[in-house]
Structures are given as structure tokens and as C-alpha cells.
């Protein structure tokens, strides 16, 4: 049994690890598509599990892994003489596979993810070629019981070029009875030759109802303003957890209130909000505020471009503010340009370690200036 005391690159801080999440919410279509492929005997040897961050892609991958690994004890399945179609991806709670997968102690399962850098005491930025070479070694070993061997790559987007090319060689000559499950937030960034060798399971963003259920299962109370949370997180459980952890709904409301007064923004209120992002212990608040500012600019530009007859708010009074700042389609471009400019400026600021309060205040003043023009 493996006990992990170091941070895990494939888990949202404060949330259960996807391998410990038994119930998958809102992704019935993806589950059904895999079951159909399994029951027909036409399983791809590799699958790309795609969709926005935090909607359950990793939870689906671990559920598929448990299902496949448990087939060794089944009388049904695609290799039985008289196969019985599988009706669900769920396996019995007392199946030993559950415990072995949860503890990362299952010998027929391989997890490929960004590793821990012991020297620098942090998670590495990429999945390196060493991890994919270890995956190749894993597939070269035969399963003692002849069952499935499963590898999970979380996330495939994080492979560097050498790792991606090493994985491609595995995909070109896949071993028998092996499945590679690759989680991808941005499949367009992957090598076309990798994408062409994979089946795809698409996970969609969650509705406000499904998001609330998933959050409750993870131990979070999402009863207050679930529609706001679903909009602001774009249906992502991972992002919703980050928002709840930093009181993000209230913070976004403050940003909307500041924007409501543009081009005469309340400068003392803007300074107060910016100052709350600086200092030791406020790193997560700074990160969240940057994301919320980008989200607000994106929503202004989208509102201006589409001029929707109906609009789902992410904060009280947001529709009125967006209508004021983006009154017609001609204003969409200036807000889209500002969004791109501020993203670039904030990325540079992070790279050179500028003071967070100065970065946030600069962004707010740029929004105020743009509203004036």
C-alpha cells in the first residue's frame, strides 16, 4: 500500500482524489459510449477523455480502470465464450480491486503524471520522458492472471515533446489486452498522430444541479447561489471548489460592483480589494482574483458580441453591468483585446514576481479606462 504525503499533480487541493470518488455525476453519455464499445468487442487500445477542467474526466478514467481490472473475475465480458453484456461500469464495493486501486497497489495499473521533484520540493512542470519510458516497461511485463492492464495519463497535455514521442511509439504497437486512458483538457495541443490513434470520450460541463450534487459528494455545501457558482465555474467541480475555498462568489460580486461604476470606479474600494491579494498566505486569493478578472472580461466581451435576450448571471446585477459596458456588438472587440492584453501582462507579472496588489490595481484601472473610451 502506498501512502502519499507529497502533493499530487492530478488532484485539486482540498478535494478527494478522483480515484477515491465512486460516483460520477453528469457524464452518462461518456459512460454509455464506453460500455457500448466494450460490449461490442471493439474497444480502442487508447482513449482520450476530453472536456473542460474539473468536470469529472479523471473520475471517469478511474472508474473505467476499476471496471476493466475487475473483468478478470467476471463470467461476462468480451472474451467469454458466451458473453453477457455489461450494464454498468460500477463494480461491487467489496471487490478487492476497489481497495488496491485506491491505495495505488494494483499491479496491473500504471499512473503516469507529473512527478515530485525531491531536490526542489515541488511538482515538476511536465510529464517527462522518464515517466513514459516507465509506462513502456510496465506494458512489457505480462499480467500473471491474463487480465487487463490499464494505464492512466493525467494529463496528456502536460507531456513534454520527448514524453509525447515516447508515448506515440507505444500507441503504434500496443500490447494485447492493454488500455491507455489519457485525460486531456486541450486535445488540440496534442500531436495529431496521438489523437488519430485514440477513441474519444467527451465529458461536458455540469449543470447547476449536477454541480451541486458533485460538490456535496465531495463534502462541500453548495446550497447558496448554485446558479451563480455554476456560471462562474463554467460547470467545473474543480474550479467551483477553488471558488468556494476563497469565498470567490463574494469576491466576484465585489468586482462587478466596481465595474458598475466604471468609468468612475471607486478607487479606494479598488485599492482595498487589490491589497487583499498581497502578503504571505494570500497566494490563492491572488490566483483566484486573476481568474475572476479574466472571467469578467470574457463575459463582458461575450455579452457585447452576442447581445443575448436571456442571460444567466454569476452575480447579483451582473446583467445590468455587462449591458452598460458592452451595449452593442461593436464594443466586443475592445473588451476582447483588453482581455488578451491583461492576460499577457499578468503572466509577465507572475514571471518577474511583481507585487500582487499592484498587478490587480493596474488591471482594475485598465478596465476603468476602457469603459471611458
Can you describe what's shown?
The protein has 373 residues and is of the alpha/beta class. It has 2 domains: 18-202, 3-Layer(aba) Sandwich (Rossmann fold); 246-372. It contains 15 helices and 7 strands. It has helices at residues 28-40, 57-69, 96-102, 129-140, 161-172, 192-195, 208-217, 226-233, 237-245, 248-260, 267-275, 283-306, 318-325, 332-351, 356-372, and strands at residues 46-50, 109-113, 116-117, 122-123, 149-154, 178-184, 199-202. The chain has a 5-stranded parallel β-sheet, with helices on both faces. Strands 3-4 form a two-stranded antiparallel sheet. β3 and β4 (122-123) form a beta hairpin. α4 runs parallel beside α5 (161-172) and α11 (267-275) packs antiparallel against α15. It is elongated. The model is unreliable at 73-77 (pLDDT under 50).
Shape designation = elongated
Query: What is the alpha-carbon Rg in Å?
Result: 23 Å
In terms of quaternary structure, the protein is: single chain
- Quick one: how many beta strands? 7
Number of domain modules: 2
The helix-and-strand class reads: alpha/beta
Number of helices: 15
Q: Kindly, what is the distance between the CA atoms of the first and last residues, rounded to a whole number of angstroms?
A: 62 Å
Task: Output the keywords.
Rossmann fold, 2 domains, 15 helices, elongated, two-stranded antiparallel ribbon, 373 residues
Topology:
Layout lengths: L27 H13 L5 E5 L6 H13 L26 H7 L6 E5 L2 E2 L4 E2 L5 H12 L8 E6 L6 H12 L5 E7 L7 H4 L3 E4 L5 H10 L8 H8 L3 H9 L2 H13 L6 H9 L7 H24 L11 H8 L6 H20 L4 H17 L1
Parallel strand pairs: 1-6, 1-7, 2-5, 5-6
Antiparallel strand pairs: 3-4
Helix pairs in contact: 4-5, 7-8, 8-9, 10-12, 10-13, 11-15, 12-14, 12-15, 14-15
Amino acid at each position: 500500500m502506498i501512502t502519499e504525503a507529497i502533493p499530487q499533480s492530478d488532484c485539486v487541493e482540498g478535494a478527494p482524489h478522483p480515484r477515491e470518488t465512486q460516483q460520477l455525476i453528469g457524464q452518462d453519455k461518456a459512460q454509455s459510449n464506453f460500455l457500448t464499445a466494450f460490449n461490442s468487442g471493439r474497444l480502442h487500445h487508447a482513449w482520450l477523455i476530453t472536456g473542460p477542467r474539473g468536470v469529472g474526466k479523471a473520475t471517469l478514467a478511474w472508474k473505467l480502470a476499476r471496471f476493466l481490472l475487475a473483468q478478470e473475475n467476471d463470467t461476462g465480458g468480451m472474451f467469454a465464450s458466451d458473453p453477457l453484456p455489461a450494464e454498468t461500469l460500477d463494480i461491487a464495493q467489496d471487490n478487492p480491486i476497489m481497495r488496491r486501486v485506491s491505495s495505488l497497489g494494483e499491479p496491473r495499473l500504471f499512473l503516469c503524471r507529473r512527478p515530485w521533484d525531491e531536490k526542489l520540493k515541488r511538482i515538476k512542470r511536465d510529464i517527462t520522458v522518464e515517466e513514459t519510458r516507465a509506462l513502456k516497461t510496465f506494458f512489457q511485463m505480462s499480467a500473471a492472471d491474463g487480465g487487463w492492464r490499464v494505464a492512466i495519463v493525467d494529463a496528456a497535455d502536460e507531456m513534454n515533446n520527448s514524453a509525447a514521442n515516447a508515448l506515440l511509439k507505444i500507441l503504434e504497437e500496443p500490447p494485447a489486452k492493454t488500455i491507455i486512458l489519457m485525460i486531456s483538457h486541450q486535445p488540440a495541443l496534442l500531436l495529431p498522430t496521438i489523437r488519430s490513434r485514440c477513441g474519444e470520450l467527451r465529458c461536458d460541463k455540469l449543470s447547476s444541479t449536477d454541480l451541486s450534487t458533485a460538490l456535496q459528494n465531495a463534502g462541500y455545501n453548495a446550497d447558496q447561489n448554485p446558479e451563480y457558482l455554476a456560471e462562474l465555474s463554467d460547470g467545473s467541480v474543480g474550479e467551483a471548489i477553488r471558488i468556494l475555498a476563497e469565498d470567490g462568489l463574494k469576491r466576484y460580486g465585489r468586482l462587478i460592483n466596481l465595474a458598475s461604476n466604471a468609468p468612475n470606479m471607486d478607487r479606494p474600494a479598488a485599492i482595498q480589494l487589490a491589497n487583499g491579494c498581497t502578503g504571505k498566505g494570500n497566494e490563492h486569493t491572488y490566483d483566484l482574483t486573476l481568474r475572476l478578472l479574466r472571467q469578467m472580461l470574457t463575459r463582458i466581451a461575450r455579452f457585447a458580441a452576442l447581445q443575448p435576450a436571456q442571460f444567466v448571471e454569476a452575480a447579483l446585477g451582473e446583467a445590468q453591468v455587462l449591458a452598460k459596458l458592452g451595449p452593442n456588438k461593436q464594443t466586443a472587440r475592445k473588451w476582447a483585446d483588453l482581455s488578451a492584453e491583461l492576460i499577457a501582462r499578468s503572466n509577465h507579472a507572475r514571471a518577474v514576481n511583481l507585487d500582487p496588489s499592484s498587478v490587480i490595481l493596474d488591471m482594475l484601472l485598465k478596465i476603468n479606462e476602457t469603459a471611458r473610451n
